[in-house]
């Protein structure tokens, strides 16, 4: 049986004061119970100062969708909860079930800011269905763990306060409080995987083994605990073989067993990119980055990130935008903003940091670009000139960072590579280069 006291305790554990909450509201019994519980919470905890809104997403798959939207609006009106709705368009030629889920969460997140809380009415029966879907996808322990009561999302957090309760408990609560709800006829169609599992598979298993669902949930919890333990141990391993938890030692990776190597890479990529790599992707990293020639320079893209290697270490970096097009004039004491959130540069006088000088009367313009000169470069104190690539190698600059070094020119002459060195003819005690990076 669902009790308000249990719900209140769990909600206070996961949602702080003054939070903004978005309830996924379909008008079905699960979400009607959810809205009712939050309505009670808000009334009884006014000092908690939650901002709660219920959002109905119209997938356009049913002729009754407008009718359901009206029901949801009226339901929220009686509960004093703000109501919103949004219509989404689905690609009906693709997997409608997966596409609808993706678009629904995308639409719900459009009502959220970072730090807000998405709350949905998932319950224990949903969890068991998720187990079968994970088995179909050949998931490992993490996938077989199913959904969690609370987790971080790309935008904000996701809270599922009803996850431990079976469907019967939700129906019992709804009937006790005389709630009304809508029935989605598409839930009867076994052409959808989740409905097929719910209507054809789980009932047959439960008929043969009455405790099947509770046993399945216990197994999922065991998978979750074992996965958490394994992740904790692997993260300790990552800290041991890495440079501040970021760059992994390739030599130490080579000494791992295949199983440990795969899982270590999986956790590391997920931690730094928030993307879980595929088995194929992990094997590509192992082949092209770890067991490859030292001087190779492979690139593996994963989402908005790249896997790279440099000097026996493996890195994950953002998939940086090309900056070679950028060129801008600047004046002394004038702040300029660099593109793609790369920060700002100012040429100023700072007695403690002055390393630069120009003629008293500037005959040529100063400009910042990300293009190195084609000729030889002479850093201050060096008698031998070298091309930029050679200096970058000598200063241990990774290949991806070389394209992100700002070059300060006086006319057509290179005055400095910002963050690296000042050139011979421009060394002095008059000025300094202040580069405030925003991408680190």
From TrEMBL:
Protein name per Swiss-Prot or TrEMBL: tRNA(Ile)-lysidine synthase
* Molecular functions (GO terms): ATP binding; tRNA(Ile)-lysidine synthase activity
**What InterPro entries does its record include?**
Lysidine-tRNA-synth_C, Rossmann-like_a/b/a_fold, TilS/TtcA_N, tRNA_Ile_lys_synt, tRNA_Ile_lys_synt_N, tRNA_Ile_lys_synt_subst-bd
Q: Where in the cell is it found?
A: Cytoplasm
Q: Spell out the family assignment given in the record's similarity comment.
A: Belongs to the tRNA(Ile)-lysidine synthase family.
Binding of ATP: at which residues? Answer: 26-31
Q: What class of enzyme is it?
A: ligase
Organism, scientific name: Paraphotobacterium marinum
- On whether Transcription is a keyword of this UniProt record, the answer is no
| Cellular component GO terms, alphabetical | cytoplasm
Biological process annotations from GO:
tRNA modification
- Outline what the protein does: Ligates lysine onto the cytidine present at position 34 of the AUA codon-specific tRNA(Ile) that contains the anticodon CAU, in an ATP-dependent manner. Cytidine is converted to lysidine, thus changing the amino acid specificity of the tRNA from methionine to isoleucine.
User: Mostly located where?
Assistant: cytoplasm
- Gene, per the UniProt record: tilS
Question: EC number(s) per UniProt?
Answer: 6.3.4.19
In terms of Pfam families, this protein maps to: ATP_bind_3, TilS, TilS_C
């Amino acid at each position: 049986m669902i009790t308000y006291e249990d719900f209140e305790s769990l909600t206070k554990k996961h949602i702080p004061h003054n939070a903004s909450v978005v309830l996924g509201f379909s008008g079905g019994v699960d979400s009607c119970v959810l809205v009712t519980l939050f309505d009670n919470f808000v009334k009884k905890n006014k000092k908690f100062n939650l901002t709660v809104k219920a959002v109905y997403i119209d997938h356009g798959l049913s002729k009754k969708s407008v009718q359901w939207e009206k029901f949801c609006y009226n339901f929220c009106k009686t509960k004093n909860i703000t109501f919103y709705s949004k219509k989404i368009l689905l690609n009906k030629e693709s997997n409608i079930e997966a596409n609808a889920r993706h678009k629904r969460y995308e639409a719900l997140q459009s009502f959220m800011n970072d730090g807000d809380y998405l709350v949905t009415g998932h319950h224990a029966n949903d969890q068991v269905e998720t187990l079968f879907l994970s088995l179909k996808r050949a998931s490992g322990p993490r996938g077989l763990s199913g959904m969690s009561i609370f987790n971080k999302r790309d935008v904000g957090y996701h809270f599922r306060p009803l996850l431990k309760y079976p469907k019967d408990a939700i129906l019992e609560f709804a009937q006790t409080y005389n709630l009304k709800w809508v029935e989605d006829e598409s839930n009867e169609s076994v052409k959808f995987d989740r409905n097929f599992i719910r209507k054809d598979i789980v009932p047959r298993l439960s008929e043969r083994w009455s405790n099947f669902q509770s046993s399945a949930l216990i197994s999922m919890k065991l998978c979750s605990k074992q996965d958490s333990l394994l992740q904790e141990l692997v993260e300790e391993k990552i800290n041991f073989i890495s440079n501040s938890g970021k760059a992994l030692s390739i030599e130490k990776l080579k000494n791992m067993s295949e199983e440990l190597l795969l899982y270590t890479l999986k956790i590391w990529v997920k931690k730094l990119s928030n993307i879980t790599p595929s088995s194929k992707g992990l094997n590509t990293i192992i082949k092209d980055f770890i067991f490859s020639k030292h001087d190779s320079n492979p690139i593996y893209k994963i989402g908005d990130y790249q896997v790279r290697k440099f000097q026996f270490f493996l890195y994950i970096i953002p998939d940086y935008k090309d900056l070679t097009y950028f060129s801008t004039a600047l004046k002394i004491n004038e702040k300029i903003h660099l593109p793609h959130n790369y920060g700002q540069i100012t040429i100023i006088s700072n007695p403690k940091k002055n390393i630069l000088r120009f003629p008293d009367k500037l005959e040529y313009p100063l400009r910042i670009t990300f293009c190195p000169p084609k000729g030889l470069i002479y850093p201050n104190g060096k008698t031998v000139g070298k091309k930029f690539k050679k200096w970058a190698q000598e200063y241990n600059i990774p290949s991806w960072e070389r394209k992100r070094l700002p070059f300060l020119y006086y006319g057509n002459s290179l005055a400095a590579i910002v963050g690296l060195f000042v050139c011979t003819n421009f060394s002095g005690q008059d000025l300094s280069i202040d580069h405030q990076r925003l991408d680190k």
